[in-house]
Design a protein that fits this description.
The chain is 64% helix and 0% strand. The protein has 86 residues and is mainly α. The longest helix is centred in the first third of the chain and has 28 residues.
Length: 86
């Protein structure tokens, strides 16, 4: 599919998602008090900056930004029961 075909197909959905993000940021800004977790707002801003970069891998970079680093102990850390096979 050409870039123009992808843009034609995806434009309205992208537009809607951008509007939804803008509305969410407006609601946060209009709130009576600042967010209790400014680090999360910083992550959102950083994610938006990643989207604006003209480079490949934006989806991967945004995913990594919002992901925890891998730990082999993640099931225990998150309280996930691990069944034993056998």
């Amino acid at each position: 599919m050409s870039a123009q075909e992808v843009l034609d197909r995806e434009f309205l959905e992208i537009r809607a998602r951008i509007l939804k993000i803008a509305a969410s940021l407006d609601r946060i800004e209009r709130s009576d008090s600042p967010p209790a977790d400014p680090a999360r707002m910083a992550l959102i801003r950083e994610g938006l900056e990643l989207l604006l970069k003209d480079s490949p891998g934006r989806a991967k970079n945004v995913q990594l930004l919002f992901s925890l680093p891998y730990s082999p102990d993640w099931p225990a850390a998150l309280g996930v029961p691990v069944g034993k096979k056998g």
